[in-house]
Design a protein that fits this description.
single chain; 328 residues; alpha/beta; TIM Barrel; two-stranded antiparallel sheet; 35% helix; globular
């Protein structure tokens, strides 16, 4: 993945924190995997776990926002949109040797690309890469809201088959604190716009963003925003404090104390219990999470909430992922 090995660090209590190039959401591909794609990449390449077998096509470098206080993923990259010639060269190179059912557009926010060029890129993927059934991309609310529904429909018709959106929280105070750059209302509008265009939406929220007095508000407001957006896929991830980020500096100075593992589970159960989905595959099975969960909601809501409450009631530490296994 082009970066040096990540070493464990000690927190203030002497516990080992397992570090990862991205704190909770995504897994980097090994350099050997990237080399198989036979295309050019700048810096570490990050993708959702569900895009593990996708052809990774880097159309932007870095993140167009890149201000979130918890995220170190693109801090060393200066954002730019690659030229069409660069992108086409990679598409043609990949097409010479492989087919791909899925293509994922890297880096952090391909929807920021102007519509005309993005249409051109999708046309080129369709024309040159054999077997493609779906193109996926990260997006943030700002870039989504720059697109009209008609423009998103055009992208869907050209193969855009899933959008990954980091909501993080539905609480406006926390959204401001983490410098997400949008309000909950804007996040809802962006998520609904993707769905109204007929594009499947996968969203993520983060457990542990609030200090203790904000936990309830964070959970309630996050359940509310998930209900209002009603995505096809949702994941709850657990905050991993990463050295070099502003939030880690707050933690070191004593200005931020994340919830303990059982309060994190209370957040998770509250979010699931109070969300009202029409049909969502909900997970909290990433390595950052203490208690892996996969559930079809709403049909498996009661069973899932009861399982979480039972773990909390029993104070069942043995059923939780140990610290040394978290993060990767």
């Amino acid at each position: 993945m082009g970066s040096s090995p990540i070493d464990p660090a000690k927190n203030k209590e002497g516990l080992t924190i397992r570090l990862t190039p991205f704190l909770f959401l995504l897994t980097n591909r090994l350099s050997s995997e990237l080399e198989k794609d036979n295309v050019k990449y700048e810096g570490d390449i990050i993708r959702p776990p569900s895009e593990a077998n996708s052809l990774l096509l880097q159309v932007t470098v870095g993140c167009s926002h890149n201000k979130c206080i918890f995220c170190p993923a693109y801090k060393k990259k200066k954002f730019r949109i690659k030229s069409y010639d660069e992108i086409l060269e990679d598409i043609l190179e990949a097409s010479r040797w492989r087919t791909a059912e899925k293509v994922f557009l890297c880096d952090g926010d391909a929807l920021i690309i102007p519509q005309k060029r993005l249409v051109q890129i999708l046309h080129s993927i369709r024309n040159h890469v054999k077997g493609v059934k779906r193109v996926g991309t990260y997006a943030n609310a700002k870039s989504i809201l720059r697109k009209t529904i008609d423009e998103l429909v055009e992208l869907r018709e050209l193969g855009l088959g899933i959008v990954y959106l980091g909501i993080e929280t539905g609480n406006d105070e926390l959204l401001r604190k983490i410098r997400k750059g949008v309000t909950a209302a804007q996040m809802i509008e962006a998520g609904r716009r993707v769905k109204d265009a007929g594009i499947p939406l996968s969203v993520t929220v983060i457990l542990g963003l609030g200090v203790s007095e904000q936990n309830t508000e964070h959970a309630n407001d996050t359940a509310r925003i998930l209900t209002d957006i009603d995505p096809e896929y949702a994941s709850a991830l657990t905050l991993m404090l990463m050295p070099g980020t502003p939030l880690y500096s707050e933690y070191e100075s004593g200005n931020f104390t994340p919830p303990d593992k059982f309060n994190l589970l209370r957040e998770l159960s509250s979010i699931i219990e109070k969300s009202d989905f029409s049909g969502c595959y909900f997970t909290s099975n990433h390595a950052s999470n203490y208690l892996p969960i996969k559930a079809r909601l709403p049909s498996e809501k009661d069973k899932t909430v009861a399982m979480i409450y039972n773990t909390i009631k029993k104070n069942d530490v043995k059923s939780l992922r140990p610290e040394y296994m978290r993060g990767f």
